[in-house]
Amino acid sequence: MRFLQRFINLEAEEEDGIDINEPVYMQKLEEINTLEQPFLEVSCDDLRSFDDDLYRQLVCYPQEVIPTFDMAVNELFFDRYPNTTLEHQIQVRPYNIEKTKNMRLLNPEDIDQLITISGMVIRNSNLIPEMREAFFSCYVCSNSVTVEIERGRIAEPTLCRNCNTNHSFSLVHNRSHFSDKQLVKLQESPDDMPPGQTPHTVLVFAHGDLVDKVSPGDRVTVTGIYRAAPLRVNPRMRNVKAVYKTYIDVLHFMKADVKRLHEAKADGCIAHLFNCI
């Protein structure tokens, strides 16, 4: 919380409405209060310059550190603006990690860590409804129970505490809570690809308002958690293979500036022309 309350970036250029002599993230919280958009983008470069140890913990243990960040931000925000009503709790979105990984260099050591990769979007899937909270109803006494989904698994209740009947619960889909999910396929940029090699691809999952943020053809920098999930031998059986499929749960998208890309290409062409002459 000290980072949020005290960090001042004197080297930054002045942005719209941001005073470089005042704490940056306190001004961003004020912006959230004004715009009512419950997302706080946190630059990992700022965090590293303020507290290198906290930065390392964020990169190595994002599943534990990011929820703690969320709690601290929400506590600070609602203490400061108690009468504000937001659509949901503020979510912290880290970006700008020190090192950008090459798709070809991703390995098992990176699993469950915060990573940044860049590439070109080649495909977006249709919207996928993902269950967040399951609603169960007892067919004997109509008692209802809600269960939160953990790591994609539904812990179905076995005993109804109202009528003491075993295995009497059934899932009610239209009363369960779902969130938006989308599969984005990212391909290695031509600049990062060794000559004569086939481009690598990575699967990226976008959630909530990050759905449809990018389109095929966009060059993006993605920050997210690198994950691995075992493949099932048979969808109807619990047995899994020793082989894992990997993907990235995205936390932040940053599109490449098209103007800068064109300028860089023009500079490259001019330099090549001079070399030829």
In short:
The chain has helices at 2-6, 24-35, 44-50, 52-60, 62-80, 258-276, and strands spanning 39-43, 91-95, 114-124, 128-138, 144-148, 169-171, 177-187, 201-207, 219-232, 240-255. The protein is an alpha+beta fold and 277 residues long.
Largest sheet: 5 strands, mixed, barrel
Helix content: 25-40%
Please state the structural category.
alpha+beta
- What's the pLDDT, averaged over the residues? 82
- List the strand order in the largest sheet: 3-7-8-10-9
Overall body shape: globular
> Which consecutive residue ranges, at least 5 long each, have pLDDT under 50?
268-277
Order of SSEs, N→C?
Answer: HHEHHHEEEEEEEEEH
Range of strand content: 25-35%
Q: How far is the first residue's CA from the last residue's CA? A: 58 Å
Q: Rg from C-alpha positions?
A: 23 Å
| Continuous helix count | 6
**DSSP, total strands:** 10
Q: Can you give a write-up of this model?
A:
The chain is built from six helices and ten strands, in the order H-H-E-H-H-H-E-E-E-E-E-E-E-E-E-H. The chain has helices at residues 2-6, 24-35, 44-50, 52-60, 62-80, 258-276, and strands at 39-43, 91-95, 114-124, 128-138, 144-148, 169-171, 177-187, 201-207, 219-232, 240-255. It has a five-stranded mixed β-barrel. A two-stranded parallel ribbon has the order 1-2. Helix 3 (44-50) crosses helix 4 (52-60) and helix 4 crosses helix 5. The radius of gyration is 23 Å and the shape is globular. The model is unreliable at 268-277 (pLDDT under 50).
